[in-house]
Structures are given as structure tokens and as C-alpha cells.
Amino acid sequence: MTSLPDYNFQPATIKFLEQSPKKLFINNEWVEGNSGETFATRNPASGAVLAEVTLANAADVDAAVAAAQAAFPGWSQTIAAERGERLFKLAALIDEHADVLAELETLDNGKPIRVARRGDLPYVTKHLRYQAGWADKIEGSTVPVTFPDQLVYTRREPLGVVGAIIPWNFPLLMAIWKLGPALAAGNTLILKPAEQTPLTALYLADLVREAGFPPGVVNILTGPGLPTGAAMAAHPHIAKIAFTGSTSTGARIMEAAAKSNLKRVSLELGGKSPNVVFADADLSAAIRGAQWAVFSTAGQECVAGTRLFVERKVFNEVLEGLTANVEKMVVDHGFAEKVHVGPLISAEQLERVAGYITEGQQAGAEIVTGGQGLSAELKGGYFLKPTVFSYQDDSLRLVQEEIFGPVAAVTAFDDEDELIARSNATQYGLAAGVWTRDVGKAHRYAHAVQAGTVWINGYGMIDPAAPFGGYKMSGFGREMGKEAIDLYTQVKTVWVSTQ
Description:
By secondary structure, the protein is α/β, with parallel strands linked by helices. The chain has 2 domains: 11-269 and 475-493, Aldehyde Dehydrogenase, Chain A, domain 1; 274-463, Aldehyde Dehydrogenase, Chain A, domain 2 (3-Layer(aba) Sandwich). It has helices at residues 11-18, 58-76, 80-96, 98-109, 113-134, 171-184, 199-210, 225-233, 247-260, 283-295, 315-327, 347-362, 397-400, 416-423, 439-448, 481-487, and strands at 24-26, 29-31, 38-42, 49-54, 150-158, 161-165, 188-192, 218-220, 240-244, 264-268, 274-277, 307-311, 366-369, 387-390, 407-413, 428-429, 431-435, 453-456, 471-472, 475-476, 489-497. The chain has a 7-stranded mixed β-sheet, sandwiched between helices.
């Protein structure tokens, strides 16, 4: 284990990090894996190695699938309320271990510890308890048909073995978004965390076992997209892949699913979300909202409001206010006493975001503030100053492509028709925001914009009961709400003659 920041870590955090290399969790046991290979998970605030982690290969995927298949008949036939009780027990255990999990999340991901502790972890158990409550409420219906003397009803049944592939920006929360509804519905699960952030998923494994889940119900494999994720997507005995990540990777998963067994696929993919400020808005609230819509999680959020549209008559006022706020933001490691923006996840991501900034300047967009790397000042971590661009050309890659970094692109608009056309002029459709005191204007925009979620006079709120997902190339299927249960069940129709 490498040296850690100057912070009073939980003893359990230190103990967990000292156990390296990390193994795979299959059939409620820690196993060595077949590849004989490991990979490093690094602290993005320093670049130092936190732990070595086993790299799962195709044979390991086969072993996990076999364990999940063997567990499926018993788990799917377990009384629904008992499945819910196991999930409630897991939520209670996560609460008990929240301080350790928050520290691991900050070490592995880089986000400020207060965000991990006060934001991520409470949402993890909030979502898990919500989905646990659905376990005994998954219902079919009776269907009136034209044939006489027939009783026709439907059942919602689990799919089988589910593969969940999750990203690195909200590692534990994304895991629970998929684990909760999948298990509540009676499926068994193979979870692959992002290779950059495997630690909280691995810590979760022991809590799964302690909560009393039978062997094989939850299996956790670590490794990169190749070979681990690809082997899952192509496996003929995985019934569904639930994926959150980039649009390009989502497309490859769909292709592999089609070629293997036509497995179900749900995709929550990229975004390039418009956030709109009308002149009649509460400008102070809108500026604060716009700031955090972009720079929360160092801009590494799929819903980030990275395209800020401001009505021309208040454009200068909003841009100046946003710039002043952004220049006060503290960039530092996640355990620093005062920090607003942590590091990017990796050296590769830092280089990628810096490339967009350079290209944006060369293409004619104007940097208003930021744009400089801070790795040297902050001891080798993957840091970048929050950056604000002013632009007018919607065709710029800076404006059209998901950057996934602390970069805002601000532009002026003149009327609603122009605004709606420009808002929708992107391949993505994940989220949008609008700030105005005119309720009619707000609803007109919310109805016209092509986005799965629209916030009015706010930005970024999520709740377990509110469906979440995208339009267009931001994917399909809905996380959260009752709609999440639909992703993990299939409908059977039963005909009964009453003669």
C-alpha cells in the first residue's frame, strides 16, 4: 500500500488497503482468478498505487456465470419479502460502514470526502431501500380478452443472470442502482466495477455475504473493458447487460449482445446537456446552479450542464458572475480541509480534457477563465483548473462532444425558437435545465427539449422514485422508479380455460 494523505483514516480503511492484491468474489468466496494478472488502482490526487487488483479473464466470467446460474432457481423462487429483507439488511450494513466506504471512494475516485460522506453514501442506502421495497410489489395484471370462458393474466418474472458494468464517477452508487432492482426482481448478478475505481465494490462484497445473500447471487469481477467487460457482453448465458458509461462503449455492448444471444441491454450513456438562463430568472440562483451543474465531481458527470445558454440581454452579467464564482473554487485533493474540485480520474482523462481545451481555443472559442493544469502544484495528481469558454459556433467539438471534465461552454441566445433548435442540435439527450420565473416558458422548454430529465429552477437532483435515463444516443431504459423494475423483468401471459 502506498502512502496516504495526511488524514485520520478509519482503521478498517487501512486494513482493507493492506490486503493486496485484491481477489475476485465468486460464489461468496474470494478467488485468485485464472489470468494470473493484476492491475493497479491509483489515487488520482497523487498518481500513487492504492492496491493491486486481480484482472478477471473470460474463464473467470465463465466461473461467475456458472455460480450465478446455479443460484438463480433458488433466489428467484425465494419469497419476495425475504429478498427485500436481504436488501434492507445490506443497506443497514452499508450505513454501518459508511465512513470506510466514503474514504475508499475519495481515495479511488478523487471526489471531496464531504461529498462522498454526505452525498454519495446517503444516496446509496436511500436507493437500496427504495428498491428493496419493490421486491414484494412486482405484480402482473388480469387481461379482458374477446374469447369466452378464459382467464388471462400476466406475470413479471426475472430474466436470469444479469451483468452490470458500471463507471468510475459514482462507483458505489452506480453499483447499487443496478444491484438493487436486479436482486429485488429475483435475478442473480455479476458486477464489474470500472477498473479505475474497484475498491468500494470489493468492500461491498463482504457486506453482501454478511447480509445473508446465498452463494452465487452476487459475484464481483474486476478488470478493464477488454477482456472482462467484453467477455460479459458476449456471454451466451448472461440474460441482460446493464451498462452505464460512454456512448461508444454502449454501442459495442449492443453489438456483442446481438451476436451472442440477443440478450437484453439497458444503456445510460453520455450527455451534452443544455442549461438555460432566461433574463427573467433569479440570476443569483441561476449562476450558482450553473456553476455546480458543470463543476460538481470535477465535471465528470453524465448530466453535467456543460452547454450554458444565456439570454443575450443578461449574457454579460451571467458570464461575469459565473466567472467570479468559478475563480473562487478551490482545487485540491479530496481530503483537503477546503476543496470544491478534486482531480480528474486518470492521467489519460486529464490529457483528453486538456486536448479539448487546446482545440477549442484554436477553433475560435474564448477562454474566460481557467484552462491550466495544476499537477505540478498539487504533487503529481490529475488536476485541472475549472474552465469557462465563451463561444458562438455550435459545431465546435468543444460544444458537441462529451468532455467529462471541468469545462463549461457559454453562449448567448435571442429567442425561444432559436434556443430550442440549438438545444436539440446534438446527438445526446440525457438532461437539461431551465431557469425562469415564467412558468409557461419553463414548461414550453421542458416539453420541447429532447432530454430524459429536465430540471426547472434547479439542476442535478435525483431521487429513487424518479425515473432517470436518456433520449437519442444517451441510451435507453430507465434507472430508478418503478421503471427500473421493468428493466430486470419479463412479462409472461397465461391463458386459463374456465370450462
